[in-house]
Specification:
Its main location: cytoplasm. It holds the Pfam family Beta-prop_IFT122_1st. Keywords: Cell projection, Cilium, Cilium biogenesis/degradation, Repeat, WD repeat. It is found in: Cytoplasm, Cytoskeleton, Cilium basal body. This is Intraflagellar transport protein 122 homolog. This protein has an eight-stranded mixed sheet with strand order 22-23-31-30-29-28-27-26, with no helix packed on it. The protein folds into two domains: 5-140, Methylamine Dehydrogenase, Chain H (7 Propeller), CATH 2.130.10; 147-317, no CATH class. By secondary structure, it is mainly beta. It has strands at 5-9, 15-20, 29-34, 44-49, 53-58, 68-69, 74-80, 85-90, 94-99, 104-110, 115-120, 126-131, 136-140, 147-150, 153-158, 162-167, 173-177, 184-188, 191-196, 199-205, 215-221, 229-232, 237-240, 243-246, 249-252, 255-259, 267-271, 277-286, 289-293, 301-305, 314-317. The chain has no helices and 31 strands.
Length: 323
């Protein structure tokens, strides 16, 4: 209601639970939705109010977790894919996708006016959006597979914000909760690299035991990168853009493969979109940075960035060296 109160009643209209949102009339309740999932232990109510908050409650009225802050006034909230995700729209003129816990994942679609309603087609990945200017939009959401494989270890994204590492022989699994959208994953030897929207996390195994499944954070690179491919090496990580320049011509790089060497002497071979394959590159240290060069007259090159506080380098193919 406009006074910031939620009243839960039975089918006869008798009030059973009363929930009062902080702020009262300054945080009018604008949209609510029950989670349709049958796998949840409790009935969960998602609440969007004009205090620019999203909150979650059990049927008993007990709040689940903390309020999730927004930077706009929400006008509609609904669950997507059987309660696994949340659709949220409002005065920011767009529909955004959130996890069922309220972590923002990305934008579904931008509009020209306030979004007053957004609903998912049951048992599908289609979403319809209605706006203040009378327009109706129809979207199909497709989730890509984000994973990495190294010998008997397979790492993959789960629930968009978690990473699961599975040992293919022992079938052991470990879950790493990142609490942010996982964009890229790379795994090699005892290292695991996870790219998040504003940073990259590098994990390593606790021990050299081949069956060990305990990972700990080794380094954090607090920087936003845009890349299509992520590769982790012995002491470096490589981020590859869509295009790289060779002899004045641009070509797509859909495949980037690491070649193991002795110690940290890793090389990289890459395949171009038109089918060409270039040999491994040797690593040559420079002051303050690293450069990967093609042994055949430097026909391809990439510069990479090494943060002073981190022991890793990030290669950006075809881009200027970052400051």
């Amino acid at each position: 209601m406009f006074n910031g109160i939620i009243s839960i009643r039975n089918k006869n209209g008798e009030e059973k639970v009363k929930i009062e949102r902080p702020g009262g009339s300054l945080s009018p309740i604008w949209s609510i939705c029950w989670n349709p999932s049958r796998e949840e232990r409790n009935d969960i109510l998602a609440v969007a109010d004009w205090g620019q908050k999203v909150s979650f409650y059990q049927l008993s009225g007990k709040q689940i977790g903390k309020d999730r802050a927004l930077n706009f006034d929400p006008c509609c909230i609904s669950y997507f894919t059987k309660g696994e995700y949340i659709l949220l729209g409002g005065t920011d003129k767009q529909v955004s996708l959130f996890t069922k816990d309220g972590v923002r994942l990305g934008t579904v679609g931008e509009q020209n006016s306030w979004v007053w309603t957004c609903q998912a087609k049951p048992d599908s990945n289609y979403v319809v959006v209605g706006c203040q200017d009378g327009t109706i939009s129809f979207y199909q959401l497709i989730f890509s597979t984000v994973h990495g494989l190294y010998k008997d270890r397979y790492a993959y994204r789960d629930s968009m914000t978690d990473v699961i590492v599975q040992h293919l022989i022992t079938e052991q699994k470990v879950r790493i909760k990142c609490k942010e959208l996982v964009k890229k994953i790379a795994i090699c030897r005892n290292r695991l690299a996870i790219q998040l929207p504003e940073k990259i996390l590098i994990y390593e195994l606790y021990s050299e035991d081949l069956s060990d499944m305990h990972y700990r954070v080794k380094e954090k690179i607090i920087k936003k990168f845009e890349c299509n491919l992520l590769v982790v090496c012995a002491n470096h990580i490589i981020l590859c853009q869509s295009w790289v320049c060779f002899l004045g011509e641009t070509a797509a790089v859909p495949v980037l493969q690491r070649s193991e060497g002795a110690g940290v002497a890793d090389g990289v071979s890459h395949s171009l979109h038109q089918g060409d394959r270039w040999p491994s590159w040797k690593r040559r240290p420079l002051s303050g940075a690293e450069e990967w060069t093609d042994p055949e007259d430097l026909r391809g090159q990439s510069l990479c960035y090494r943060p002073a506080e981190a022991g890793h380098s990030c290669a950006l193919l075809g881009h200027e060296c970052l400051p």
